[in-house]
Specification:
It contains two helices and seven strands, in the order βαββββββα. By secondary structure, the protein is α+β, with helices and mostly antiparallel strands. Strands 1-7-6-5-4-3-2 form a seven-stranded antiparallel sheet, with helices on one face. Helix 1 crosses helix 2. The radius of gyration is 15 Å and the shape is globular. The chain starts with a strand and ends with a helix. The mean pLDDT is 91.
């Protein structure tokens, strides 16, 4: 398996619960995440200890885009969101969002591993992924500051 991986840590000036809500508000991703053309929830199951979401994201540009389905699991006790792929252009996806509150700000640790089914696009993504990840992280941070500060 030829996976790509990246890790990112940031302190975001937003309380933990608001930031978690922002990440779980998948249907709004199309409003602020670069290259996200559409986003919607297919299924939502909520319990006292966890939340399970099946969602679709359409990413790309006008004529070059793909839709992928993912399973999002939120452990309320651990303040951990784990995302895995169900269907689409990804052969493999696992990302984790870990949230820790620090003085009404949040330390966000984000880890991702992925592999695309298409080897050519996989090679391109490997070479430009850090740039894209930082743009997406910036978009989440700016959205949090806009909504919660």
């Amino acid at each position: 398996m030829s996976t790509s991986s990246a890790k990112l840590s940031r302190v975001i000036d937003c309380n933990k619960n608001n930031l978690i809500s922002l990440v779980l508000d998948i249907q709004k991703y199309k409003e602020f995440i670069p290259w996200c053309l559409d986003s919607y929830i297919l299924e939502l199951k909520d319990s006292q200890s966890s939340q399970e979401i099946k969602a679709n994201l359409k990413v790309g540009k006008k004529f070059l885009n793909e839709t992928f389905s993912s399973l999002v699991l939120y452990s309320k006790k651990e303040d951990l969101i784990t995302v895995t792929n169900i269907d689409g252009p990804l052969k493999y996806l696992k990302n984790e969002w870990n949230f820790k509150e620090i003085n009404n700000s949040t330390l966000l640790n984000f880890n991702i591993e992925f592999e695309l089914k298409n080897n050519f696009f996989n090679l391109i993504m490997k070479n430009s992924f850090d740039f894209g990840l930082n743009k997406i992280a910036d978009a989440f941070e700016q959205r949090a500051l806009k909504l919660f500060k």
